């Protein structure tokens, strides 16, 4: 029965009861003048009727207000892009917006008063989804609090929509179930964006973390904020040591100004800058040269930081230097071979004629002796040039290198006496046998000892010792010493600071050591002296 009919029925019943009851009461009590009593009855009836009408009008206003509010609510929920649904305590649908009805294909269904299971019969595609809603609703009722979850709803075209679903249970004061509010926000686009962002983040991390070169991030002050694992191999400093420190701390002093200017230019000009051959301060003092690049991090047209890239080019530079040396040696080899060939032909004739003159001379002529000595000297120079030419097959034999050094000391004795040089020769009692080419070894020791004499050394210490499967020969002098920059270039053809030097002596020496699978190392300090250490393997290769 409608609200209007109920109010009308109540009014009629109360009116009839009033008339009959009051008339009966007047007759029974015989209260006097009938007309006066009827007037009083009428007045009371009018007053009561007025109150009733006032009450009815008030209720009508409330109904109209509720109706207006319901229309507003309906307009509001229908304008929302979210799924909104109101259910009673039994799970029956009370109200749903158009978005929800369209989502579950219930636009033409009288859904009010029906449960999810009953509505599932109207759609085959969403049959299982609606039945699952009952299970999800029950979980919320059991939790007795607001629940939130992500639900994936399939679409007829094969796509899916993801909803962030909030369910709010309402209870009566006696804890009975009163109603359930279900709000589902479509977060499909957000989930896709999050997925894309996550994929981009993984790509960025892969590019950053697994980059074969050093990649680092710094703020506008140059303080390191992030590093990839390549920092420690390049500098020997751990990530924990480097994080929060300026990147400029790891640049050698000679290049620091150049890097600082490039860094500021990136911030100011908002474009990448590169710097070649930057010396890195290695923790263990190793020589490391890197190629640097700075790229600005621009957000909202403002530079917020800088990404740096560093490529270790130490080996590349060393290889380039070796290639240059190899090219020089190749040219020298071709030139030396040609010169040696051209010199030796007339040299043989000259030596033969001098020997013939010497044999025919009745008296010993010191001029012949001098000429033969000088011709032998020219021949030795030619032999030195041949060492620089194409590799020749060398005949190795077991020799005691103690004897080789003694022969060289005997040869250079007069020259050392002339310059006031003393020699301290120390060796082990056991024969230091080495598989070598004796003449080349003598040439090696002659070159090294002459360098010591020309460096104005007054004392030369030669020490030979066996160590495991190697023989170590060290030649130390107290001469002028060699600077660090000069040591780096020792062995390069035509590099010499002597007035008439060609730099070929050490080139030949290095080549002889290399031919015997040995190593040569220079330790020197200007004003103190130089120590040359050579290590030769005793095992045959």
UniProtKB/TrEMBL annotation:
Domain Histidine kinase, chain residue ranges per copy: 338-540
The keyword Chaperone appears for this protein: no
Entry keyword Kinase: yes
Residues annotated as domain PAC: 147-199, 274-325
SUPFAM superfamilies recorded: ATPase domain of HSP90 chaperone/DNA topoisomerase II/histidine kinase, Homodimeric domain of signal transducing histidine kinase, PYP-like sensor domain (PAS domain)
Segments passing through the bilayer: 7-28, 40-57
Molecular function GO labels: ATP binding; phosphorelay sensor kinase activity
SMART domains: HATPase_c (SM00387), HisKA (SM00388), PAS (SM00091)
One Pfam family of this chain: HisKA
Record's keyword terms, sorted: ATP-binding, Kinase, Membrane, Nucleotide-binding, Phosphoprotein, Transferase, Transmembrane, Transmembrane helix, Two-component regulatory system
Broad class of enzyme this protein falls into: transferase
Substrates-to-products reaction catalysed: ATP + protein L-histidine = ADP + protein N-phospho-L-histidine
EC number: 2.7.13.3
Boundaries of every PAS domain copy: 200-270
Annotated InterPro entries: HATPase_C_sf (IPR036890), HATPase_dom (IPR003594), His_kinase_dom (IPR005467), HisK_dim/P_dom (IPR003661), HisK_dim/P_sf (IPR036097), PAS (IPR000014), PAS-assoc_C (IPR000700), PAS-like_dom_sf (IPR035965)
Entries under NCBIfam families matching the protein: sensory_box (TIGR00229)
Name by which UniProt lists this protein: histidine kinase
Species of provenance: Alkalihalophilus pseudofirmus
């Amino acid at each position: 029965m409608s609200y209007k009919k109920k109010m009308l029925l109540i009014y009629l019943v109360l009116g009839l009861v009033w008339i009959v009851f009051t008339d009966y009461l007047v007759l029974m009590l015989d209260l006097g003048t009938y007309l006066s009593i009827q007037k009083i009855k009428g007045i009371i009836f009018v007053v009561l009727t007025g109150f009733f009408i006032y009450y009815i009008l008030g209720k009508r206003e409330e109904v109209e207000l509720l109706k207006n509010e319901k229309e507003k609510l309906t307009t509001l929920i229908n304008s929302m892009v979210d799924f909104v649904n109101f259910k009673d305590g039994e799970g029956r649908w009370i109200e749903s917006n158009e978005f929800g009805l369209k989502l579950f294909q219930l636009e033409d269904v009288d859904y009010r008063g029906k449960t999810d299971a009953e509505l599932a019969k109207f759609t085959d595609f969403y049959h299982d989804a609606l039945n699952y809603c009952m299970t999800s609703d029950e979980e919320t009722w059991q939790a007795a609090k607001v629940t939130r979850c992500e639900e994936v709803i399939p679409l007829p075209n094969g796509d899916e929509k993801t909803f962030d679903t909030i369910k709010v249970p309402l209870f009566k004061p006696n804890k009975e179930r009163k109603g359930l509010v279900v709000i589902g926000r479509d977060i499909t686009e957000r989930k896709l964006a999050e997925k894309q962002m996550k994929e981009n983040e993984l790509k960025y991390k892969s590019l950053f973390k697994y980059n074969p070169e050093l990649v680092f991030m710094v703020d506008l002050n140059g303080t390191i904020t992030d590093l990839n694992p390549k920092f420690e191999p390049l500098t020997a400093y751990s990530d924990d040591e480097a994080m929060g420190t300026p990147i400029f701390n790891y640049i050698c002093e000679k290049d620091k100004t150049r890097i600082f200017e490039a860094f500021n230019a990136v911030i100011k000009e908002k474009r990448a800058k590169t710097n070649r051959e930057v010396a890195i301060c290695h923790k263990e003092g190793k020589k490391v040269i890197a190629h640097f690049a700075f790229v600005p991090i621009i957000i909202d047209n403002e530079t917020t930081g800088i990404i740096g890239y560093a490529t270790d080019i130490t080996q590349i530079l060393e290889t380039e230097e070796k290639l240059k040396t190899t090219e020089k040696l190749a040219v020298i080899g071709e030139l030396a071979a040609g010169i040696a060939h051209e010199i030796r032909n007339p040299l043989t004739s000259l030596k033969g004629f001098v020997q013939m003159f010497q044999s025919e001379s009745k008296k010993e002529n010191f001029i012949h002796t001098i000429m033969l000595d000088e011709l032998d000297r020219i021949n030795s120079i030619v032999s030195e040039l041949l060492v620089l030419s194409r590799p020749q097959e060398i005949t190795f034999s077991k020799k005691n290198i103690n004897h080789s050094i003694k022969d060289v000391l005997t040869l250079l004795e007069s020259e050392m006496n002339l310059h006031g040089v003393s020699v301290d020769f120390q060796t082990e009692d056991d024969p230091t046998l080495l598989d070598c080419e004796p003449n080349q070894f003598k040439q090696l020791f002659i070159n090294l000892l002459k360098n010591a004499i020309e460096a104005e050394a007054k004392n030369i210490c030669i020490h030979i010792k066996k160590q495991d499967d190697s023989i170590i020969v060290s030649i130390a002098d107290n001469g002028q010493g060699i600077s660090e920059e000069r040591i780096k270039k020792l062995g390069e053809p035509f590099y010499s600071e002597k007035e008439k030097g060609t730099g070929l002596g050490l080139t030949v020496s290095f080549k002889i050591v290399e031919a015997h699978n040995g190593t040569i190392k220079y330790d020197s300090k200007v004003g103190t002296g130089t120590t040359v250490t050579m290590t030769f393997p005793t095992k045959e290769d």
